[in-house]
Amino acid sequence: MEHTTINLTLKVWRQKNANDKGGFETYNVKGISTEMSFLEMFDVLNEQLIAENKEPIAFDHDCREGICGMCSMYINGRPHGPWHGTTTCQLHMRAFKDGETVTVEPWRAKAFPVIRDLVVDRAAFDRIIQAGGYISVNTGNAVDANAIPINKHDADNAFAAAACIGCGACVAACKNASAMLFVSAKVSQLALLPQGHPEREDRVLNMVAQMDKEGFGSCTNTGACEAECPKEISLENIARLNREYVAASAKSEG
Amino acid sequence: MAKESFISSSIGRKVIVGLTGLFLISFLLVHVGINATILLNDGGETFNTAAHFMSHNWVIRVMEIGLLAGLIAHVVMTLKLHFENKAKRPVGYAVIDGKANSKWYSRSMAVLGTLLLIFLVIHMADFWLHTKKSIYITGEEENPFEEVKRALTNPIVLIIYIGGFIALGYHLLHGFPSAFQSLGLNHKKYTPIIKALGTAYSIIVPGLFAVIALALFFGLVQ
Lengths: 254, 222
Prior knowledge:
The structure holds 2 protein chains of 2 kinds.
Chain A: E1 5-14, E2 23-33, H1 38-51, E3 74-75, E4 78-79, E5 101-105, E6 114-116, E7 119-120, H2 123-132, H3 152-162, H4 169-173, H5 180-191, H6 200-213, H7 224-228, H8 236-251
Helix pairs in contact in A: 2-5, 2-6, 3-5, 5-6, 5-8, 6-8
Chain B: H1 10-36, H2 45-56, H3 58-86, H4 104-107, H5 109-138, H6 144-152, H7 155-182, H8 191-217
Helix pairs in contact in B: 1-3, 1-7, 1-8, 5-7, 7-8
């Protein structure tokens, strides 16, 4: 591909800490290679800010290869920007036109408070996983990995659900700030496999209770989460979560 | 960990919204079926017979209470969810590209539902209250067909009704398939059928209501 460079105007959310009111700052970046990733463009901007003796922009990132779920920017009205099935680190600058104004905001949700600039606290997801995202394994000799036969269809669906990286784009995209796609993926990947069955009912009840407690909204089936998920987690998982929850509630003696 | 009750959980509430929604959808089929007898153009004879049955049969009287309860449950639960959900994002976005990931009517169910509720109040005041008054207070001989004809010759009433049918169509376009998803029914083979059925229902039922209203307004049925 031909190497081109572009100039952009960036409107970036700046917020000193959780208590600061925050607001947008406008920056100009010049000579951005279209082969850069969106985060590399932010590195360039931050170096520019440091050279100007200004505070660099705080943003989350780790692996920069689309698998860790740390990057979390709401770009031009969409989580992870305009491309389908990609994280912000895998979004490349060829997605933007020369001279374009790009607005960058943090995830917005009561359950994801802003820590600083574009960094939000996603510990609510960790607490949901702690509430039920585990299985019981007996100690002793390791069991042969292939000892339990698993239907191929279930294995594939469990694998697809397990692709969730917990980035929170589903919450960011949802008009209700609902975490249903995330929770449904975490419940599904274990509910579909025999190893997840001993805790199956407690898991779904506890994880949903924790989800509600953390202050996420409820699902209204707009489908925005599925459309924006970088790992393309299916809405079928939310239906499975609903089924699992109804069945577990009906059986529960508590 | 303390378990939350089914009714107070986010999923339990959505199940109630879905179930009451499907119940109201089933009622619409009865309503549009009875209204369609107007198109027989028999001077309202069949329509009046059906309307008389609906307002006097005791089984229907009991079901009417159930219908009202279903409607109230649907409205109260969805409004509660709507305002709770709004509070889950105290600081909003400056830019939202909603059309990139969802349909406008899916995001506007509360507005469409409120428009429908306003329409329903007007509609009930027009016909339901009027019929009740005739039966229980004045004891006049009712002629529902003449009532409908009288109301729908007014162009303002016609516009309100057509507006109500459009809101109903879009509300159903999201609500019909959404109810099945809330109940956990999503399947590679059946969901496309449910969605197609939902789209057909959302066009045909409000469309038929509109055709009947227009036919009365333009005097095509007498």
